[in-house]
Structure prediction request, 346 residues.
Amino acid sequence: MENKITFTGKTGIKAFMKSMVFSLLIVSVLWGCETLRESKPIIPMQDYETMLMGRLDANYIGNDNCLSACHFHDKLRRDFETSTMGAQISSESHLPLVNCESCHGPGSLAVAGLTPETVERDAAAGHITQCKSDTLIDLKSLPPQAQSLVCLKCHSANATFNLHNWNAGTHSINDVSCHDCHNLHAGPVLVTEPVDVEDMCTRCHRKQVVEFSLPSHHPVKEKRVFCTDCHEPHGTISENSLREETVKETCTKCHAEKAGPFVFEHADNGDECTRCHRPHGSVNNNLLTVKVPFLCLQCHPTHRLSATSANAVAKRHTRCTDCHAQIHGTDLPSTGVSGGGRALTN
Prediction:
């Protein structure tokens, strides 16, 4: 016997309408989810290609044709030819890995109509011949990730191994590109020198500028320690882009005497230097977060002293380190009689 659903009366019509509305809602939600999965570029795909590859109607003409036409007497050419990239494309290396068009896109339109005679005529008139740069890739207008992509075409994987974490690094996530720190046309030396790192980093990290000016600080301003001694700017798997896996491993690269292991460790503080020290600067001695004895009293609220000497000791000593000098750890047991004296100086 065939089953039929019938709607009679006002109640039945309302139920039917609710059922239809619910069905349409389900269909619209499913249709919306399906459309979200589709690739819909904000601008036409050809515009993206032009942004990344340059004019699609231009041709690659090689480095010699680019430079001889408009940069013949330009300092850029001299710097580039004596740089690492310039050495790769020299005739002696036979390794045409990098050239002007690798970053700026095909240059046939940029130098169209320019000849050595044009360059000589302009030079005689006191002018420097300029190419039509508006036909090249507008690198400054690209999003930060696209700017970095131009560099990562070559500087990735085995070419520069420390860049394999770049895309997941703090700088990339915060829209910092390679161009914000590196200027390939600044001179023949393309590697950023450590002495220049401080000014480069502090353009953005303004809080650290203040911390490095505090009474106790790592000597970054004095050019004895550099930001890259502790941090890898291209990204790491560690927190705060540290070069080592833990804070202690990073600190003990310089402070090796604090590495241990010790027979008598300082409890749970052994692997986390920042529980007591501020890494960049502090108003307290030795980069301490809190002045002694208040720093120690956060974990050691009581201290056992002999009843006869308690007042005398309290008058003479206001720092725990007057007695407990080996606060990071020691292999020697204490010879003192006071409680908790394992880290006492013998």
